């Protein structure tokens, strides 16, 4: 886990991957940039784009990547220099490896059989073991990410396979953990999803162009139609000959990351048949059924608590209202090394609509409590603005265990719920009552989708 301080006490976004293959020779880079903008919520530390011409000379991959937001890194003049009709892109939040330009993706690799560019969302639990084996055989790594381990294994396997897909298959058989990969070789665009389906990946189409993306909202951003989710364990190849699927890694056991549905994914996305907006509405309704309270109105913490708050309001019959104004123009690069500075950042990002909350008994909905610092600040702000009561409802169960598959959840000693009861947390954060979504209600939220919820119950699927 990274030890830098963030402006909100939340599990950190994973990463976002995007790839496009134009069969008509259109420029890929602008579409990749638009797709990455739609996935910006999944990572704000760094981004990159790599492109090639599938009909041109092999090894003609060009790329640009840097720390910062997509809009900061990719200007028109840079996009115009990225010539090619196939491309991959990545937005990064670092779960392994430092937040540096060297660790930005896509990773571009030249090797004996050619070149490849790889964009990776997820985390491998056996990356260190795999890296050690490669180093013993003479490999030298340029980054500190597990993504480079994957790329190096593909390159090594490719030296004795007939095609890049077989090299990817042999590599994937060695990987343990959660991953969604978009890989570009000089002639092909390839998507890979881990056999459990921990990380999302979907396929879209616009005219004669095919798109791979972490979420369906990125397909919408480039005017593409959603075709389907990539099946867990599926390797899908896009080339001038069309789309081909390899399901040799497919297995019966699936475990989709629950936090995609609680927090990570955009509300306008659909993941594995589940509408994210509707799932969060159902979570709010379940909270209202489990933890009713005599109150005047329901509100949510922007942005992630808003949809569940609407569900709570619908089920409880209480009115919904916005209690916070979110300043969207506060930069993401504030460094907050002390608790006081973190609290100041919350005040800078969110302000209270005093006339909405004054003399009111509020139900405040948020998606999670990690350390408890942010929610305590928000409750204090609401009460200072005149709120009579603040009843907190959380649209996830308590965080009790760390995640090893690509979600940056702190270690146990930093998870407030691992050492405090709900009653103690309620007192610590200054709430008048506190209720968490029940573990059994996750099934209702995701329509019985098989889930990884190890951060709540320690039942790790790998």
From TrEMBL:
<keyword id="KW-0658">Purine biosynthesis</keyword>
<dbReference type="GO" id="GO:0009113">
    <property type="term" value="P:purine nucleobase biosynthetic process"/>
</dbReference>
<comment type="similarity">
    <text>In the C-terminal section; belongs to the purine/pyrimidine phosphoribosyltransferase family.</text>
</comment>
<keyword id="KW-0411">Iron-sulfur</keyword>
<keyword id="KW-0328">Glycosyltransferase</keyword>
<feature type="domain" description="Glutamine amidotransferase type-2">
    <location>
        <begin position="15"/>
        <end position="241"/>
    </location>
</feature>
<keyword id="KW-0408">Iron</keyword>
<comment type="function">
    <text>Catalyzes the formation of phosphoribosylamine from phosphoribosylpyrophosphate (PRPP) and glutamine.</text>
</comment>
<dbReference type="GO" id="GO:0006189">
    <property type="term" value="P:'de novo' IMP biosynthetic process"/>
</dbReference>
<keyword id="KW-0004">4Fe-4S</keyword>
<protein>
    <recommendedName>
        <fullName>Amidophosphoribosyltransferase</fullName>
        <ecNumber>2.4.2.14</ecNumber>
    </recommendedName>
</protein>
<dbReference type="InterPro" id="IPR035584">
    <property type="entry name" value="PurF_N"/>
</dbReference>
<dbReference type="GO" id="GO:0000287">
    <property type="term" value="F:magnesium ion binding"/>
</dbReference>
<feature type="binding site">
    <location>
        <position position="366"/>
    </location>
    <ligand>
        <name>Mg(2+)</name>
    </ligand>
</feature>
<feature type="binding site">
    <location>
        <position position="455"/>
    </location>
    <ligand>
        <name>[4Fe-4S] cluster</name>
    </ligand>
</feature>
<feature type="active site" description="Nucleophile">
    <location>
        <position position="15"/>
    </location>
</feature>
<comment type="pathway">
    <text>Purine metabolism; IMP biosynthesis via de novo pathway; N(1)-(5-phospho-D-ribosyl)glycinamide from 5-phospho-alpha-D-ribose 1-diphosphate: step 1/2.</text>
</comment>
<dbReference type="GO" id="GO:0051539">
    <property type="term" value="F:4 iron, 4 sulfur cluster binding"/>
</dbReference>
<keyword id="KW-0808">Transferase</keyword>
<dbReference type="GO" id="GO:0004044">
    <property type="term" value="F:amidophosphoribosyltransferase activity"/>
</dbReference>
<feature type="binding site">
    <location>
        <position position="367"/>
    </location>
    <ligand>
        <name>Mg(2+)</name>
    </ligand>
</feature>
<feature type="binding site">
    <location>
        <position position="403"/>
    </location>
    <ligand>
        <name>[4Fe-4S] cluster</name>
    </ligand>
</feature>
<keyword id="KW-0315">Glutamine amidotransferase</keyword>
<keyword id="KW-0460">Magnesium</keyword>
<feature type="binding site">
    <location>
        <position position="304"/>
    </location>
    <ligand>
        <name>Mg(2+)</name>
    </ligand>
</feature>
<dbReference type="Pfam" id="PF13537">
    <property type="entry name" value="GATase_7"/>
</dbReference>
<dbReference type="Pfam" id="PF00156">
    <property type="entry name" value="Pribosyltran"/>
</dbReference>
<dbReference type="InterPro" id="IPR000836">
    <property type="entry name" value="PRTase_dom"/>
</dbReference>
<dbReference type="InterPro" id="IPR029055">
    <property type="entry name" value="Ntn_hydrolases_N"/>
</dbReference>
<keyword id="KW-0479">Metal-binding</keyword>
<feature type="binding site">
    <location>
        <position position="257"/>
    </location>
    <ligand>
        <name>[4Fe-4S] cluster</name>
    </ligand>
</feature>
<dbReference type="InterPro" id="IPR029057">
    <property type="entry name" value="PRTase-like"/>
</dbReference>
<dbReference type="InterPro" id="IPR017932">
    <property type="entry name" value="GATase_2_dom"/>
</dbReference>
<dbReference type="InterPro" id="IPR005854">
    <property type="entry name" value="PurF"/>
</dbReference>
<feature type="binding site">
    <location>
        <position position="452"/>
    </location>
    <ligand>
        <name>[4Fe-4S] cluster</name>
    </ligand>
</feature>
């Amino acid at each position: 886990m990274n030890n830098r301080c963030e402006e909100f006490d939340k599990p950190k976004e994973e990463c976002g991957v995007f790839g496009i293959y134009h069969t008509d020779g259109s420029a890929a880079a602008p579409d990749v940039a638009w797709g990455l903008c739609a996935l910006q919520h999944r990572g704000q530390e760094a981004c990159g784009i790599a492109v090639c011409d599938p009909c041109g000379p092999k090894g003609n991959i060009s790329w640009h990547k840097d720390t910062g937001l997509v809009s900061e890194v990719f200007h028109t003049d840079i996009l115009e220099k990225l010539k090619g009709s196939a491309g991959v892109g990545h937005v990064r939040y670092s779960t392994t490896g430092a937040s540096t330009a060297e660790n930005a993706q896509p990773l571009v690799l030249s090797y004996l059989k050619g070149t490849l560019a790889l964009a990776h969302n997820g985390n491998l639990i056996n990356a260190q073991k795999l890296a050690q084996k490669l180093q013993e055989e003479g490999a030298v790594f340029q980054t500190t990410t597990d993504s480079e381990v994957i790329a190096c294994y593909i390159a090594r396997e490719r030296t004795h396979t007939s095609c890049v897909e077989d090299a990817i298959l042999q590599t994937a058989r060695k990987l343990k953990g959660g991953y969604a990969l978009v890989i570009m070789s000089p002639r092909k665009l390839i998507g890979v999803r881990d056999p459990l389906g921990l990380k999302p990946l979907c396929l879209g189409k616009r005219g004669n162009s095919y798109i791979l993306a972490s979420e369906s909202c990125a397909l919408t951003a480039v005017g593409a139609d959603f075709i389907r989710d990539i099946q867990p364990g599926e390797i899908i190849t896009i080339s001038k000959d069309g789309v081909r699927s390899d399901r040799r890694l497919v297995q019966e056991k699936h475990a989709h990351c629950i936090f995609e549905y609680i927090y990570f994914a955009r509300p306008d996305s659909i993941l594995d048949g589940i509408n994210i907006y509707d799932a969060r509405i159902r979570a709010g309704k379940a909270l209202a059924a489990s933890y009713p309270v005599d109150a005047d109105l329901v509100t949510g913490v922007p942005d992630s608590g808003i949809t569940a708050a609407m569900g709570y309001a619908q089920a409880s019959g209480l009115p919904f209202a916005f209690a916070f104004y979110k300043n969207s123009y506060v930069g993401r690069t504030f460094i907050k090394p002390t608790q006081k500075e973190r609290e100041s950042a919350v005040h800078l990002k969110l302000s209270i609509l005093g006339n909405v909350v004054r003399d009111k008994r509020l139900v405040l909905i948020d998606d999670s409590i990690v350390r408890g610092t942010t929610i305590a600040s928000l409750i204090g702000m609401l009460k200072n603005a005149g709120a009579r009561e603040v009843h907190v409802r959380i649209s996830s169960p308590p965080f009790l265990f760390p995640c090893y598959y690509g979600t940056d959840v702190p270690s146990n000693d930093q998870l407030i719920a691992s050492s405090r009861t709900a009653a103690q947390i309620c007192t610590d954060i200054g709430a008048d009552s506190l209720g968490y979504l029940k573990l059994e209600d996750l099934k209702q939220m995701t329509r019985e989708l098989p889930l990884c919820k190890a951060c709540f119950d320690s039942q790790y699927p790998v």
